[in-house]
């Protein structure tokens, strides 16, 4: 009787479980906003762009990238107008230059914008609509350029009191930082057709000329102890590859590099080793140290100690190719 009762209870539990209805939760789809489906178009005074991302920050970044693409279209129209004027002239580089410019325009940072709309679309998707007033964007770009040149001019006054190598590093860095300026000026001219950026072009050219003047006049000479005589050639080649002169000279723009090597002979598994400690010191015309480095290299050969020492030069040359002459010398050239 007890067994029958337990069996009946089990059957009832199973039947009760089968009869229970499972609740299915259905998430209500999010409505797509009208501004997303039919975004406003850019016009004579405003730029609009949509962006999507996994969060609001990513969506804004993508929207600004899209806005830069919109600027590219405007720049392209400007270039096409110039191309029509040049029709019939032999100018095969126009198309290539335009394409290069447009790709760089898309890299321009847009800092003046307004977040008009934002909404979560669900499933880790976020959408935004951003707007930038062309006049405000133009003024923000102009202000950023002027601030940049103001900083450069103040730093230039100070760096002229430093040695030529520090000046070389300064002008090289500023020259690289200003490479995108011509493309920014093109965009500014599209935003404000009456804008004249010649003043900024002249300032950029002055930076480039100052850099070239140092490159053409700075010189280096290399001395070494007898153990390091075969190490001078890789150092000289690394400097020459930077388009800098190897010349025994004097004056404020001349530097002397000293290589001092201590080499010990060793044997390992049938090879002759040349273990070295190489000290490299660069001094200016006053004899002040402006850069230094210590290297530990090991040359090896199965053909004798002389060949192992020659292998040191090969190892040093490989290091210069890999790390650069500036790192090997401990000198920013």
Based on the model shown, name its key terms.
333 residues; alpha/beta; 5-stranded mixed beta sheet; 3-stranded antiparallel beta sheet; 11 helices; 8 strands; 50% helix
How many E strands?
Answer: 8
Strand-residue proportion: 15-25%
Report how far the terminal alpha carbons are from each other. 100 Å
Q: Give the helix level as a range of percent.
A: 40-55%
Helix-and-strand structural type: alpha/beta
Compute the CA-based radius of gyration. Answer: 34 Å
General shape = elongated
- Strand order, main sheet: write it out: 5-4-6-7-8
Q: Average pLDDT value?
A: 85
Biggest β-sheet strands, sense, barrel: 5 strands, mixed
What is the ordering of alpha helices and beta strands? HHEHHEEHHHHEHEEEEHH
The low-confidence runs, each spanning 5 or more residues with pLDDT under 50, are 83-94
* Tally of separate helices: 11
What does this structure look like?
- The protein is an alpha/beta fold.
- It has eleven helices and eight strands.
- A five-stranded mixed beta sheet has the order 5-4-6-7-8. A three-stranded antiparallel beta sheet has the order 1-3-2.
- β4 (219-224), α9 (232-240) and β5 (245-246) form a beta-alpha-beta unit.
- Residues 83-94 have low confidence and may be disordered.
Short recap of the structure:
With 333 residues, the protein is of the alpha/beta class. 50% of the residues lie in helices and 23% in strands. The strands form 2 sheets. A 5-stranded mixed sheet has the order 5-4-6-7-8.
Q: How does the SSE layout of this entry go?
A:
Blueprint: H1 2-19, H2 34-37, E1 46-53, H3 56-85, H4 94-105, E2 114-122, E3 125-133, H5 134-159, H6 164-177, H7 181-191, H8 198-217, E4 219-224, H9 232-240, E5 245-246, E6 254-268, E7 271-283, E8 289-301, H10 305-323, H11 325-329
Parallel strand pairs: 4-5, 4-6
Antiparallel strand pairs: 1-3, 2-3, 6-7, 7-8
């Amino acid at each position: 009787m007890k067994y029958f009762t337990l069996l009946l209870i089990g059957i009832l539990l199973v039947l009760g479980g089968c009869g229970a209805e499972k609740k299915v939760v259905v998430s209500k789809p999010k409505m797509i906003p009208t501004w997303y489906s039919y975004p406003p178009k850019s016009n004579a005074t405003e730029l609009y762009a949509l962006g999507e991302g996994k969060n609001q920050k990513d969506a804004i970044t993508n929207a600004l990238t899209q806005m830069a693409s919109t600027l590219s279209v405007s720049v392209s129209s400007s270039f096409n107008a110039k191309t029509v004027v040049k029709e019939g002239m032999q100018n095969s580089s126009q198309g290539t230059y335009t394409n290069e410019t447009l790709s760089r325009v898309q890299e321009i940072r847009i800092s003046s914008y307004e977040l008009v709309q934002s909404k979560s679309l669900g499933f880790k998707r976020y959408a935004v609509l951003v707007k930038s007033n062309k006049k405000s964007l133009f003024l923000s770009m102009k202000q950023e350029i002027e601030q940049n040149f103001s900083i450069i001019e103040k730093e230039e006054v100070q760096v002229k009191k430093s040695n030529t190598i520090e000046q070389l590093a300064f002008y090289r860095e500023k020259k690289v930082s200003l490479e995108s300026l011509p493309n920014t000026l093109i965009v500014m001219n599209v935003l404000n057709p009456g804008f004249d950026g010649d003043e900024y072009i002249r300032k950029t050219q002055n930076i480039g000329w100052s850099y070239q003047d140092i490159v053409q006049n700075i010189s280096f000479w290399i001395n070494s102890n007898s153990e390091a005589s075969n190490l001078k050639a890789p150092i000289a080649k690394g400097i020459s590859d930077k388009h800098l002169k190897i010349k025994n000279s004097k004056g404020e723009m001349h530097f002397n590099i000293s290589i001092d090597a201590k080499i010990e002979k060793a044997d390992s598994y049938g090879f002759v080793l040349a273990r070295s400690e190489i000290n490299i010191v660069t001094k200016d015309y006053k004899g002040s140290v402006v850069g230094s480095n210590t290297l530990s290299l090991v040359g090896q050969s199965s053909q004798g100690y002389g060949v192992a020492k020659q292998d040191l030069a090969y190892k040093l040359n490989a290091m210069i190719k890999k790390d650069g002459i500036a790192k090997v010398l401990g000198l920013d050239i």
